[in-house]
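Handout, page 2. Input:
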Amino acid sequence: MPKILFVNSVCGIGSTGRICTDLYDLAEKNNYECCIAYGRNKAPKKYNTLKIGNIFNVYAHVLLSRIFDMHGFGSKIATKSFLKKVDKYQPDIIHLHNIHGYYINVKCLFDYLKKHPQIKVVWTLHDCWAFTGHCAYFTYANCNNWIKDDCRKCKYKYSYPKCSLKSNSYKNYIHKYNNFVGVQNLTIVTPSKWLKNLVNQSFLQNYEVNVINNGIDLNSFYKEKLNVETKINILTIANVWEKRKGLDEIIKLSQIIDYDKFNLIIVGISSSQSELFPRNVITIERTKDIHELRKIYNNADLLFNPTKEDNYPTVNLEAQACGTPVITYDIGGTKETLFSKESKIVKDFEEFIHMIENFDLKKNKKDINVDLAFIDKNVKMKEYIDLYDKILDKGK
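Output:
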């Protein structure tokens, strides 16, 4: 039975952590033995796991990132100890996810992968960190230094992974180039065509790149028949609200919206941020209750996603699965997440305002149709199983 080792910053929590456990479950059903290596928080007990380092290792790595901007190059002792466990496990496939996150030394990791060419490597990029000198995203900063000058002039050192002192982006870029290039049997996966196009412009361009979209659990997100309200419910939701997610535009919207005609519902807001909004606004802190979230989506007449920086936002998928159209900007892979004809791309905030002023409340949300195969996580996860089968067959 072939073995797969998943490597990610977390296990079973957050979007990437849940992707790992979902892949684990499906791979086991398809006759793979699995293990998840992770660096932070706790893992669900039902999974075979390997912990990389400890909380002290994470704090030391955070400090290295904050002061010297050397994210990904700490945790050397923890990583070497982990790689000894990898030797004992002897995986046929190592599936990397987020290798940033203050827990693993990428030089040690990739030196190991280069010395063990018999191991097939799949690397799912959930953002752009792998081919920049610092940041996970750069569109909000309108920066293309990673193409033009090897990240010599970083515009985004205060973004994740935050650096408070002198930028080390150029050296980071060179170190990543030297470490990440030249791994045999490595296949890259991106959740969007947008990110694939960026990878093909980067120093990772010689690797095979496959697009496998993220999916959602259709047993959790679906249409429900709810009472029709007289007002139009505008929903906006984010895991963490900040400028790059469009917080400024949501504040602006709350100040000009006609509350006789609209309800504005903001999910994911912190208690301190809720004070920025008029009392008419319905603010809801971050919720992990899927049933509550599904009800929120179903009660909404439209989802406004004002993100300025994103790869393949699953909130758009969840809303449409619940019959709620999405209005968003053409940023990153957002356009690729729109599957209903009622969902729209707008060029700016003014166009969004014009659109909602002409919104037809009489339209029955049950008439909104989405090809659910495009967003079903079970369908998408099966594409990974097909990829595992393919790359193992190549070695026979």
